[in-house]
Amino acid sequence: MSALLALFRRELALAWGRGGGPLNTLAFFVGTAALLPLAVGAEPRRLAAVATGAAFAALALASLLSLERMFERDFEDGGLDLLVLAGPSLYAASAAKAFAQWTANGLPLALLSPVIAAMLGASWTLAPLIAVSALLTGLAMTFIGGAGAALALGARRGGLLLVVIVLPLYAPPVILGSGAVEALSNGLPWTSPLLFLAAYALAAIALAPFAMAAACRNAVS
Amino acid sequence: MIAALAVDRLSISRGVRRLFEGQSLRLAAGEAVMLSGANGVGKTSLLRAVAGLLRPDAGTVTFTGADGATLDPDEARADHLHLAGHHDGLKTQRRAEEEFAFWADWFGGAAEHRAAAIDAFDLRPLLALDVRVLSAGQRRRLALARLRAAPRPLWLLDEPLAPLDAHWRSVLAAEMSAHLARGGMILAAAHDPLPIPCRVAEIAA
Description:
The structure holds two protein chains of two kinds. Chain A is mainly α. Chain A is built from nine helices and no strands. In chain A, 83% of the residues lie in helices and 0% in strands. In chain A, helix 3 runs antiparallel to helix 8 and helix 6 (90-119) packs across helix 7. Chain B has a single domain (2-202), classed as 3-Layer(aba) Sandwich (Rossmann fold). In chain B, the strands form two sheets. Chain B has a five-stranded parallel beta sheet with strand order 5-6-7-3-8, with helices on both faces. Chain A binds chain B through residues 1-3, 6-7, 10, 13-14, 17-18, 73-74, 76-87, 220-221, and chain B through 48, 51-55, 77-79, 81, 83, 85-91, 93-94, 98, 101-103, 105-108.
């Protein structure tokens, strides 16, 4: 089995291992979204107006949760030394780790987001677009978040530092993703925000592994 | 293939503290060098500098191939060198078997070498266990088995003997001798004398 595939499978196994990490992330997503009706009132018209926006904000927060551990465990147990030292390039290894992180957390979150939006009163006709936007949003957030996680390695309270680093970069996908869904629900053209979101996600996939690799090299030295 | 290692006038700092200056050593195929020195003098840092994880303040690390040509250091490190230390990269919540297979995959170990590694370090009784329940010595055996599972000419070992009992020390000694006989090289930081013929390089601040 190729080394990168082995790394991807190991990361997935670790994410889904004891403790069921992604389940906690999903529960957090549901919990944050459920707070909204309590905060603004359960009146359906008022809720439906903010449903997609609230779902995307909750998605952004939920995807932050497990990022901290993305490189930290390897940094602590010395695995990161060996990932840097040998095997495929660190760029490819970082990308494989980020894809595994997205498969374990971003993918289930994206599949849940139409349900969350519908729970808050968004129309089911929006569900496919919400799912696609959430998939792309999640990809962008995971890769950018991975770069933040690598930069925060070795810092005390790294989790908090990570949030401060990446949250500003989460703004574009949130704006574009919820913007596409809003446009569709108002009968406006929705393809261009979706295409911009796809471009942002692709740029994150291509560029963030460079930052992850450089930050990991710096962390082990 | 690395056939010789030259460390020339290496100086390393950690933070603002200079660990050592002007450290040089030579290692040729079939040789072992033991790095000795007080705690904190920089033995591990020297190993990490040879592995390319740590950037020295000054000095060079040169790898030479069998034909006498200087090798590209990044390629030489990525393909021809093992680093085994206290931090073994083993995940405690995974089974020993899974972790052994992952690192063998990562270092590109062939199937017959994996089988030989499992036999040499008698890992069969451990494979079904979680890494979490292994003793320090068993865990070290699992980590050292990589050296055998994916043969590479240069071994950088940090206190390889520390948690092993007398029996496993002698097994490791036999593995090290066999590695040297095959033309391998060993650079090991240790406090106890290595159980193989070797030169001693004293590191002093």
